[in-house]
Amino acid sequence: MTNLYPGQFRISRIQLINWGTFHGYFSIPVARKGFLITGGSGSGKSTLLDAMSAVLVPQKDLKFNAASQQDLGRHNGRNLVSYIRGAWRQQENAHTGEIAPEYLREGATNSVVALTYDNGTGTQHTLIAIFRLNGGENSVSQIKRLYGVVQGDEDIDKLSPLLTRSLDTRKIKAMYKGPGASFTPTYTTFADRFRKRLGIKSEQGQVLLHRTQSAKSLSSLDQLFRDYMLDTPSTFERAEESVEQFEDLRQAYLRVEDVKAQIETLAPLPQLHSQRTTAEADKHKAEAMNEALPAVRARLVAEELDYRIRALTAQQAEAHSAAEALEAEVTHLDDAERRAAVAVSQLSAGELAALEAKIETAEKEIEHRSKEFHHLAAAADQWTDHFELSPHGFAELQANARLRIADFETDSAQLTEQQQEAGVAARDAATASASLESELHSFSSRRTNIDKALVELRTQLARDTGYAESELPFAGELLDIAPQQAEWEPVIQKLLHGFAATLLVPETAREAINQWVNSRNVGTRLEYRTIPEFAPAPAPARSPQQLIHKLEFQDHPMAPWVRHHISSRFNYECVNSVAALEQVTKTPAVTRDGLESRPKDKDGSTRFIKDDRTRFNGTRWYRVGSTNTAKIELLRSQLTEAKANARAMAKQVHELNRKMDILRTQRDKAQRVLETKFQDIDTASAEARKRDLQEQYDSLASSPEAQALATAHEQAKEKLTAARAQLNEAQKHLGNVEGELNRSTQRRQSIGTVPTVADQGIAKAVEEALHKSRRKLTIDDIDARRDEVQANLQETARTAARRIEETNTKIVSVLHKYLSQWPAEAADLEPQASFAGEGMEKLKFLRADRLADFRAQFLELLNGTTVQNLSHLASSLRHARSDIEQRMEFINKSLERTPFNGDRTLRIDVKDARGQVVQDFQRDLDAATSHSLAEISADEPEAAVARYHALDKILSRLGSSEPEDIRWRNLVLDTRKHVSFIGRECYPDGTTANTYQDSASLSGGQAQKLVFFCLAAALRFRLAEPDQDVPTYGSIILDEAFDRADPAFTRTAMSVFTSFGFHMILATPFKLIQTLSPYVDGTIVVNYDEPIIQGRPQARTGYSLIDATSYPQESQESPNADA
Description:
The chain is an alpha+beta fold. The chain has 4 domains: 10-220 and 1019-1116, Rossmann fold (3-Layer(aba) Sandwich); 234-259 and 861-1018, no CATH class; 291-376 and 684-777, Helix Hairpins (Orthogonal Bundle); 447-627, no CATH class.
């Protein structure tokens, strides 16, 4: 049947070199009527079909063993590498336990597939695909490819010598340099060339042929047209473009929001700036008033003093006149009193006067002894409530005083000793507190645990030699004790105490450091080491208990050397008990309590060390550690305790001093008692003497004449006394006035010229403040009022300063927040209060310019291509059904060319099948894009933002990579799933005989006939011109064809394809050979074996050719298969 459908290209031969388990060269003739590939399960039928797909299918659409994948619902692991390498089984690696494929071809290898097409009229074309992997290459991306189209039926076996070492494109092209031969490494170029030669109209035709290969389970029209016929709708591409373009709109929106956020962040600045300006004005006014206060006070005092001096001068003159008049009066009365006294004296010959004098002396003695008695009682009131005022009682009081003095010697000696001890303790506590405070200050000023003297020495060394301090670390700064090893910290600190203070110097700095150290007195012990650039590897740790495992090392260039040094020089085994210490004999060991042991010496002795000279019971003495935080915390705690102790000691000293003062006071009072005589306090005898004198006086003065003279004398004395009292008051008043006048004059002179205040407003404000709440301000209370005003002004200034500081803090906070969110603005702004003005200028610029610009850009984009594209997407979704209906008209025309059942033809109609989710999406899309051509203006920000969020809601989900959103996107965008398909069986006049809405209502044979009839029509539509009865390209491949169908279904489907003029290449089980024999004139049986080759099993696939009539078995093996 070589003349069957002349002019139609059908596959006439398949050639393979090293394809999968087809190892070697194979040439398989393909019958023109139809070709059947059969064999057992796993024999290699699909391997042969995949070889054909590797040539015919675009790489992006290629799926190997597609029919099986369809059944399994997952990827089966086949790819181009597995076919080139010949993967044939999975083996577990005995060493790694990994499951890996076993290959027939491990090193550099090639696979070649060739398909020869013959149109039955003498024209032949051979399509060649060459694939190469070099040794060690097992990735699809590493495959080297070459595709060729050669005119005629060409053998590819002759290519093998050219592929031994490489894919020699030049030699291959030279071998096929005849007319019509072309080679390219690009599949698209290769496909364009062979489609033109074989009559395949488009790449869609190629893809449909590949999909048809796995169409064995097609059972519904929806599945056929959705998965096999209709192309991926443009809605996906439009949605992707919209998502991409929306990114510009999103960025514009984010810029607007960013500017708004900047404005919101900077918005507090104007009010804060105003508050700060007000506070600064208040502070300036208060300070100016406080500065002017002395001058204003001096002026007011001067004015008051001037007024007072004038008034006192007038008072002085008046008082002087009154005193002179009273002096004359006293002189006159003095003469009268003297004359009266002379009369009394002459009467009693002076005896009354003598008695008066004695009585006066007696009264003074009584008063003196009474005072002495009260002083003595006050001195003795603490050790006796009352004593008898008699010689006996006074003697007992003095005896008690002697006991007090004797007790004082004992008590004071004891108290003095306590004072001395407390004084020493107080001084020691104060010294300790000061020492701790100094040490805390020192450690707070640096991060390191190393001694202050060494740190200061390093600072000077680094400054003088030009090295950074970080280049000259102390060993202890590169170490930390692991947090989980805290219980070992004291002993580790003790072991590494000396090494931690070792200064580490780069080898390159050796000469400079040596010169510097040698040229001066460093003032302390300095040990330093020069460190090479590359440190040796640490000594291997023999035990997890070694000291190095309890340390953590900083990221520093010298840390590897430190690690090596500790691992080799401090390779202590850290053990928990003395018994465990005894077990360690090869390395030094140490217990948690600090007992060290050394390996046994050559003389058989073992050295043990316990050094408790310094107690490392706190972090104060630690040197190891990258930071000194723990040491600072300890020092703070110790300083608090030391200060409390110092205060307690001082309090104790104060209390002891108070007790000593009490003892001394009691001693002094007892001493006074001893120094007093009884007659000094005996008021009774003095009062008896006065009584006796008074009786004598009364007896002498009782005569009538004496009484009259005495009365006249007394009256004269009274007048004189009264006049003298008035004179005394007048002189006192005069003295007071003169004294006040002198003081006022001196005070006024001390003020001198009153200073003036430049700002009269300030001066007035100060004067008002001084007079505030005062009915009258006097010179006596002006200083008190000045102090009140001064205190108020100072408090006002302090309050204003606090307000300024608080406002500045808020300004700094605003600027810091702004710059932390927008660091690019740091070129013009700094988080400092002085930049408030610049911040407000920035705010003004953002409000006036940037917000408007970005909002305009946002609106321009919002009214631009993004919405337009979504509008087109919405339009595409709305018109999807009509577009599909138009496409179906071409299919229906193809269906009309071939009867479906007798004289009846088949027609496919389209029905809406959108679900609620799709309808909701289209409704949201329409709402978001409605009136899209009507631009939103800058006066409608709410509408713009509302539209943006509506678009964002849609496009964010369309662009999402979440599995749920991907499923949703495929559902709402795949318009193929928005419709379903109905088959109508029509009479020639167009009336409907039967309607097939879905395959569920049909029998299996009816459903298969319906679907495959439509598939054949679709293939003819893709492959043939509209006026062609038979397409130019005819070979159709079906894998696992009809494997679960009965003979009737199989014959029905085959009749459909042959009625459309297709060349069927079928891979199917043995059971269908008899059923399919009328439709084929060539059959091969693919066989698989695992022969033992070179002592190990090897997979081999071959085939046997069966004649179409007599089925003689002609076995063919690879001509170059391994023996």
